[in-house]
Specification:
The structure is a homotetramer of 336-residue chains. Chain A is an alpha/beta fold. Chain A has helices at 16-24, 36-39, 41-49, 61-72, 86-89, 94-99, 116-124, 152-165, 176-183, 225-231, 240-250, 254-271, 292-300, 327-334, and strands spanning 53-58, 77-82, 103-107, 134-141, 168-173, 198-202, 212-217, 285-289, 306-307, 312-316. The first copy, chain A, contains 14 helices and ten strands. The two termini of chain A are 24 Å apart.
Chain lengths: 336, 336, 336, 336
Amino acid sequence: MTATRFFSDNAATVHPLVMEAMARANIVDTAYDGDALSQSLDTAFSALFETACEVVWIPTGTAANSIILAHFVRPWQGILCYEEAHIEVDECGAPTFYSGGAKLMPLPGQGAKIDAEALKARIAGIRKDVHQVQPAAISITNATEYGLAWRPEEIGAISEVARSSGLKLHMDGARFANAVAFLGCSPADVTWRAGVDALSFGFTKNGAMMAEAIVFFGGSGGAGVRELKKRGGHLLSKGRFVAAQIRAMLADDLWLDNARAANAGAAALAAACRGRLMYPVEANELFVRLSAAEAAQLRSAGFDFYDWGDGAARLVVSWDQDAQAVAPLAAALLAL
Amino acid sequence: MTATRFFSDNAATVHPLVMEAMARANIVDTAYDGDALSQSLDTAFSALFETACEVVWIPTGTAANSIILAHFVRPWQGILCYEEAHIEVDECGAPTFYSGGAKLMPLPGQGAKIDAEALKARIAGIRKDVHQVQPAAISITNATEYGLAWRPEEIGAISEVARSSGLKLHMDGARFANAVAFLGCSPADVTWRAGVDALSFGFTKNGAMMAEAIVFFGGSGGAGVRELKKRGGHLLSKGRFVAAQIRAMLADDLWLDNARAANAGAAALAAACRGRLMYPVEANELFVRLSAAEAAQLRSAGFDFYDWGDGAARLVVSWDQDAQAVAPLAAALLAL
Amino acid sequence: MTATRFFSDNAATVHPLVMEAMARANIVDTAYDGDALSQSLDTAFSALFETACEVVWIPTGTAANSIILAHFVRPWQGILCYEEAHIEVDECGAPTFYSGGAKLMPLPGQGAKIDAEALKARIAGIRKDVHQVQPAAISITNATEYGLAWRPEEIGAISEVARSSGLKLHMDGARFANAVAFLGCSPADVTWRAGVDALSFGFTKNGAMMAEAIVFFGGSGGAGVRELKKRGGHLLSKGRFVAAQIRAMLADDLWLDNARAANAGAAALAAACRGRLMYPVEANELFVRLSAAEAAQLRSAGFDFYDWGDGAARLVVSWDQDAQAVAPLAAALLAL
Amino acid sequence: MTATRFFSDNAATVHPLVMEAMARANIVDTAYDGDALSQSLDTAFSALFETACEVVWIPTGTAANSIILAHFVRPWQGILCYEEAHIEVDECGAPTFYSGGAKLMPLPGQGAKIDAEALKARIAGIRKDVHQVQPAAISITNATEYGLAWRPEEIGAISEVARSSGLKLHMDGARFANAVAFLGCSPADVTWRAGVDALSFGFTKNGAMMAEAIVFFGGSGGAGVRELKKRGGHLLSKGRFVAAQIRAMLADDLWLDNARAANAGAAALAAACRGRLMYPVEANELFVRLSAAEAAQLRSAGFDFYDWGDGAARLVVSWDQDAQAVAPLAAALLAL
């Protein structure tokens, strides 16, 4: 934990309980994903989501997103998403790579949420012929790239469009924990109950080291998921160390506790940013209006963060920075 | 460590010094590969190999092999390799995936070593037109899939063919440490000095958790390597934990010590297998003639290992199984 | 020729001189592209473009565009283009397929021309890291998708951005002849002299049967072009019949005559559409405001064409429809 | 027709009836494959094959093979075939390209026929895990690369292995006509009745200009076939000219007449090659033992053909070279 680092939750520390679980996993077991920890994931996630889940661990969110999407679309098909979605702008084309050529089809949106009506119109505008790429999946991110949590009914509106057009619905949950912590709902409410077919459930930003879960709801991810994991070079031989992280994060709701801490830190900062906020603060990210001079002043006080275009900045609070930890930055912001 | 597990070094434990290094890395640092540990790898490997190296960490050997080969070949070209090479039979087509379609072009060989003359003849037999796939790289494995170490002059003969045909030479070094430990040579002698252009330097089987190094000799791996690492989903956000493993393995020659221990264990087993050995035992793998009854007898005594077709078995000794640790199995083999 | 078909020049007849040339090619010759006609293309195009050209025939424009672009970009890179460019919306993802995964990066524009300043800003907005897809090529279409001809200086402005950013410049010339016919310039003026690196020179819409030329200016297209042509299944064994079409189109400037005829037809229609035109009519396409009732009236008179969204229509004049041939439609338009 | 060219049927002339049909097709019609000729193919082939067929025209055999195989296998799967199959050695990796990465898995065979028992053993030898590429299709060539015709019962043995292993069976019929002409059977007997799922039906070598048919038996080729045709750049805008060739070849069994002529020519040559034949001559290709001196003697007399390694040559007879046309070569062979 540091009281000065707000550029990303990506580089946060690993929670001590996760480190301990990894140490405990340092015994001989079956290679790849044949070990007891890896084999326990289906059951663990099925309990958490209150439905039968098929789960595959994977070291990164980029791989999680790409493998799920590659499972849902064929090489000549497309993936509808928000125009600043991580899969569109921050993964070096990974979903296209894993799918063998699928096209990302970006849509505008408010607060990084695509709109169900605009989505419907976009789909309707595609000629149903072989000249135009036909979408086969929709991907949304929860919490969004601008730190907002999708409500169950908002997801339901998107999934209704998906169903009526024969598309699969994927949720990029790099910060899924932060969204659930904010909403106070069951994980099921913002996933399968709202029509989500598969989730990239992120743990790395939230206290793990390199551990994400590919979660298929209500049955099998079918052919291709495990093959792509291997073919992509993600089937670690000592896979038990990834599964151990995930089990540690699920135990006693550590994933929720960590997310709540980060959200609380963000809320504390938000209170110090009234008038500056570009979006409501629901998860662990703040987008604030900040002049160049103000940004320089904060940086000279030791705080680091990313500029967000001109006159704005992004502040990200990590799981190890709760309301108390962010107090110095909050004070500095109020003092501007 | 167990005295009974000989099915693979893939599932071995992680060396305590590696675990400690990972624990020490659990501080806030820059994300991805911008941290100090990741940035130190070029220097560390350049010292070890006595030449300027460009190094990229990567979590798996499959990814290391695939990204190097994808850097060397274009999608319409080919990769010459031994017909049972890991890249040909055990990676679910990963090199073809990462290269965007390159063809594996398998060759026979003794002890999993391809022969320079046969290689030359194979290349000569390919029509130089657009109808036939033209090779652009050769991949050899050291130690080989049958546990033999390539000698510098053997590698030199292959690299001479490579140079004269305009091909790049890749070495899959999943068990590179075991080969170097056996040969007692400088790492340089069996790599760039013998004409190798890039090495997949494996640490995972040899005491790390998930850490391999992509090593380009004598300059840059150029465009594409880092892009493919990201695009393939291997740019872990907390990458310092991978770099830490590698630095721990390099410190005080832990990589060599571990390999020597495994080799010594294999040598002790080999002494108990006279008359059964299908290949000389140079690294940490033994391929032994074993009847079904004998195999059953060993298994009933608690030893596990893979059958290798009919009437044979593979025994792999891990870094945590030295000569003393394998004594029970040696005794059981002698007692057959 | 028909006086009623204005939905596309795609389905026009083949010019009699092309048919005759194909008949003359019906003799035994070397297979693939080893025949005398195929081998003559470099020379013929070098004369036409007043510079050394390397030329490959190809049956379709989709393949021409895709193979050139795949030659210019690596799988993890991007292609900047107008947001309604044919390569973006009408080729089922072919450039991504042929390049092994490159991303199309669409830009807005007036009359289907991208703007040099906007292009520069877009490139500047891409972070130079491995997370974001880096563009390696720009593709423009001449005549544009809205029937406008790029002027040499406009192309020069784009190519200056390309050069300063290290990008290659491709021109989709499906209707290149119509642009040159309108401008009355040398083909060189709107290609290599203005900084274009390669041209898809279309003949099919302009009187050929299935014949386009991939033209690289000032030297070799290098490795990959011929391999991709074969690998894509476009190396027809009786390739002389494609080369024959191209030679017939070049002979006595048939390509220009045909384009002039189509342009003249379009101009005649344009004169009947004053007040309705959405864009100036420079080539052989018209985009006209037309109410649903007016469109229905024209169709009931036998004319066919595509609607272009609500309240608009696209009219395309083919090489076999000159000013005289379009007179009935012109009259009908005036009579609305 | 020439009496001296025996290097390939690839470069033969186009039959006059095909040329006439193309001339007749030079009228305005719908673009792409919406024209009446293209739309008539399902019916025409369904009649020929005595079962419901779904048919797509395509300009080359490489594209036909690749698109069918890409329809049958996923990128991470494999295609079993003869080790010298055209798809393995002469298509620059096209099936891997179109399928997004599928692996060709070559098998030995007599006369270019793979053996059902060897096939079964090969499949059994593949571990059913994600590390090894799992085959999803088998491809055989009829007539084979060595000019032999697969008998219905031989195909049946292969298709039985296919069915029991869940694999699809593809037939490369570049010289399908020659095989059927030799066997004197119904086209159905050596295709769907024997268990073939899809056929690349070649017309180009047999008198067409650039026309092959992708034929799916007993129902739909389903999603992907038409998309890949477009995405690969094979959906010619004036597609009616390809469909016209195919209809002309089917009319009055021109395809069979042409094949019979070529086969008769080959049989006449075979009679002059007793003692030299490496394989029985069943179709239109001969593989003959020929010393370098003998080959030189024939060439000095004006005959051209390919050497087939040392001491052997390949002679291919085209549709326009019947028994009478090959008489000079037959005489020259006898005179050696």
